[in-house]
Amino acid sequence: MAAAEITYLEAIRLAMRDAMRDDERVFLLGEDVGHFGGAFGVTQGLLDEFGGDRVIDTPISEEGFIGAAFGAAWMGERPIAELQFADFVSCPFDQIVTVGAKTHWRNGIALPVVIRLPSGGGVRGGPFHASSPEGWFVGTAGLKVVCPGTVEDAYGLLRAAVEDDDPVLYFEHKALYRRLRAPQPDASYRVPIGRARVARDGTDVSVITYGSGVSLALGVAEAMAPGASVEVLDLRTIWPLDVEAVLESVARTSRALVLQEASRSTGAANTIVSLVAQRAFERLDAPIRVVAPPDTPVPYAPELEDAYLPSAAGLTSALEDLLGY
Amino acid sequence: MATDASAVIPCEEAPAVDDDVRRRIFRCVLLHRLMEERIMLLYKQGRIPGSVYTGRGQEAVGAAAGVALSADDVVAPLNREMGCHIARGVTVAHIFRNYLGRATGPTGGRDGNMHFGVPEQGVFPLVSMLGDLVPVMVGAALAFKRRGEPRVALTFFGDGAFNCGDTHEGLNLAGALNVPAVFIAQSNRVAYSTFTERSMRNPVLAQRIEGGYSIPCPRVDGTDALAVYSTVREAVERARSGDGPQAVEALTVRMDGHAAHDDARYMDRELLHEYATRRDPVERLAARLIADGMSADEVASLRDAAAAEVAAGLAEAEAAPAPDPATLEQGVYASPVR
Ligand SMILES: Cc1ncc(C[n+]2csc(CCOP(=O)(O)OP(=O)(O)O)c2C)c(N)n1
C-alpha cells in the first residue's frame, strides 16, 4: 500500500513526534506551542501525546527561551525551539550568534538545539511576518542553516537536525505548509545536513535555489523543456554550503542563476556568486545571475507583495536572457 | 597589603560554618587575590594580551558561592568571580593558561582572561554579552527539573547587567518554569563608570527581584565571605528541594577600575579607603579565622601556601605550548559536515 499523502506542515509535525518518541531528550518549547498547538498549528496534538514536561509553553521571551534551550542542551537535552515567526529571530539573535555559534569552538561544548523559524512571504504578512532572514546566519561559523523545499526534506532535514550535535536553524516556509503534499516519508528517512541535491537534471543552465525556490524552479524548468534543459540544484542546507555540489553543477551547465526569496543582498545569493566567481569563473559562458526580491522589507499590499516575490514569469525571462547571452 | 589589622572588621561570627569550609573559602579568596595581582603585573609587562578585569574587593562572593555548591551542580561565573572557578576545582595553572593564551588552556588560546568554562567541572564559559548567561543557566536548571535530578544551576550578574533584557527574561522564565536556578547579584553599584543611581530608578536589586519576580532575594554583605556562604548555601538548598528559583544580592565595592586601563578616577576615594582598610574580604576572613582561634602563624602559612600555588601554577602555565595557527578552523562544529 502506498504511503498516505501528507502536507509539508504535517511532515514537520511528524518529524517532531517521531523524534520525541525515539529520544526522551527531545522536547519542545516556544510561545503557544502547547495548549494552542502553535501559531500555525504545527505542534498540534503533541502536548496530548507527550505532556507538559515535553511541550512547554513559554512566556514571550525569545532571548529567554532560546538561551534556555542552549543551557538545557549543555546538560544533554535536545530541545526544539519554535519561533512564532522567523522575523522574531532578531530578538534572540545574540543568544544564537554568541552562545549558540561560538561555544563549541571556544570551549568544546556541543549545543544540539534546533530552532524552527516559520519564514517567507506570500501570506500578506508584511514587514514583520513574511521575512526570509536566513542570510543573517549564512557565514556564521558554528551554525547550520537548513531550508526544506519539499515535504520529504521537511521531514528528513528536521530529523537530521535533531540528531545533529550543533545548533541548527530550520527555516520552514509558511506558504509551503499546506501547498505541498507528498507521500509520507519513512520514519528512518534522513536528509544529510550540508549536502545539496540535484532536484532536476539539466545541461543548459543551473538554477541554484532553496526553500520556496525549489518548487518554483522545478515548475519553470518543466515549462521550458524541451527547448531548454534546466538543472535545478536544491541546496537544502545553505550554511555550511555544499561547495562541491555548486561547482559540479556549474561545471555541467556553464550557466548559473541563483533564485531565492530573501532580498537580493541577503540570503545565500552573494555567497554562491562569490564562490562561483572565485572557483568556476572559467567554466562560465555567461555572468551568473540572481533572481530575488529587491532590497526592501517585505511589503503588505497584494500588488506590492506579488511584485516583490520571485515569480515564474520573472524566472522564465531571466533564464531566457541568460540562455541567450 | 597595607592593611592595619586592628582596623579590619572580622566577618560576622558564623558558628555554623565549619572549619573545612572556612579553609576552602580562604584558599579561594587568597588565590583569587594573589593571581590577579600577578596577572596585573604580567599585563603591565605585556605578557598578557588583550585586557584584564579584576574582582578586587568582590572575591568573597564568587568563592563562597562556589563553595556553597555541590559537586553535581553547575555554574556560570563572570569576570569578577575567579574564586568560583577555584572552588569548583579549576587549577591555578589552567586559569593562567587561559590568560596566557596557551594551547592546553581551557580555550586553547581561542579566548582570553576570564572568558572560559571548564565543562568537566560543571562550569559554563562566560560570554561577554551581559545577561546572556541568565537564560542559559535557567535552561540548565530546566534540564535538571525535567529529569528529576537534585541539581542546581547558579550564575551571577552585576547591577549593570540588571539593565539588560536577557537578565529579566531569564528571571521571569525561571519563575514561570519553576526551575532550580540560583542568581547572585553582584551589587557593587557601578557598571564601568556609571553608577546605579544614574542607570535605574530603584537600585535595590533585591526589592526588584522579590517584588518583580517573586524570587526570594536576601541581601548580604558581599565582603563577608562566611555570610555570603551561609546565605547562598540556604538559597541553593531551597532551590534543590523544589522551592523554585532563588536569588541573593551581595553588596560589594569594586576596588579596581572596570579593567586594567581604567584608573577609576570617578570612584569615591573615601569609600575605597574605608573598604581597603576595614572591609577587604580577604582580611575580614583572616581576622575571623584568628578571632575563632586560628594562630597567626597558621594564617601566614596558608597565605604562603597560596602564594606558592600561584607561583607553581604560573610556571606550569608558562611552560605550556602556544597554540598552532594550523588548528584554527578545527572544532567550529561538534559534527562537521564533511
Ligand atoms: C551587552 C553588553 N554591553 C556592554 C558590555 C561592555 N561591558 C562589559 S562589563 C560592563 C559593565 C558591567 O557592569 P556590571 O554588570 O555592574 O558588572 P561589574 O563590571 O560591576 O562587575 C560593560 C558595560 C558588555 N559586556 N555586554
Describe this structure in words.
The complex is a heterodimer of chains A (325) and B (338). Chain A is of the alpha/beta class and 325 residues long. Chain A has two domains: 5-183, Rossmann fold, CATH 3.40.50; 197-323, 3-Layer(aba) Sandwich (Rossmann fold), CATH 3.40.50. Helix content of chain A is 35%, strand content 18%. Chain A has ten helices and 14 strands. The model of chain A has no long low-confidence stretch (mean pLDDT 98). With 338 residues, chain B is an alpha/beta fold. Chain B has a single domain, classed as Rossmann fold. In chain B, the strands form two sheets. In chain B, strands 1-2-3-7-6 form a five-stranded parallel sheet, with helices on both faces. A two-stranded antiparallel sheet of chain B has the order 4-5. Chain B starts with 18 loop residues before the first helix and ends in a 20-residue tail after the last helix. The model of chain B has no long low-confidence stretch (mean pLDDT 97). The chains are: A alpha/beta (325), B alpha/beta (338). At the A-B interface, α3 and α4 of A face α5 and α6 of B. The complex binds thiamine diphosphate. Residues 80, 128-130, 158-161, 164, 186, 188, 190-192, 254, 258 of chain B line the site of thiamine diphosphate.
Percentage of residues in DSSP E strands of chain A: 15-25%
Biggest interface, and residues per chain?
A-B, 49 and 45 residues
Look at the helices and sheets of chain A and give the structural class.
alpha/beta
Oligomer: heterodimer
Fourth CATH level, the homologous superfamily of chain B: Thiamin diphosphate (ThDP)-binding fold, Pyr/PP domains
Mean pLDDT of chain B: 97
How do the helices and strands line up, and which of them pair or pack?
The complex is a heterodimer of chains A (325) and B (338).
Chain A: E1 5-7, H1 8-22, E2 26-30, H2 46-50, E3 55-57, H3 62-74, E4 78-82, H4 93-107, E5 114-119, E6 144-146, H5 151-163, E7 168-173, E8 181-183, E9 197-200, E10 205-209, H6 212-224, E11 230-234, E12 237-239, H7 243-253, E13 256-259, H8 269-279, E14 289-291, H9 302-308, H10 312-323
Parallel strand pairs in A: 2-3, 2-4, 4-5, 5-7, 6-7, 10-11, 10-13, 13-14
Antiparallel strand pairs in A: 1-8, 6-12, 9-11
Chain B: H1 19-44, H2 59-68, E1 74-76, H3 82-87, H4 92-100, H5 133-147, E2 153-158, H6 165-177, E3 181-187, E4 190-191, E5 194-195, H7 196-199, H8 205-213, E6 219-221, H9 225-240, E7 246-251, H10 269-278, H11 281-291, H12 296-318
Parallel strand pairs in B: 1-2, 2-3, 3-7, 6-7
Antiparallel strand pairs in B: 4-5
Helix pairs in contact in B: 1-2, 1-11, 1-12, 2-9, 4-12, 5-6
The complex binds thiamine diphosphate (TPP).
Thiamine diphosphate (TPP) binds next to β4 of chain B.
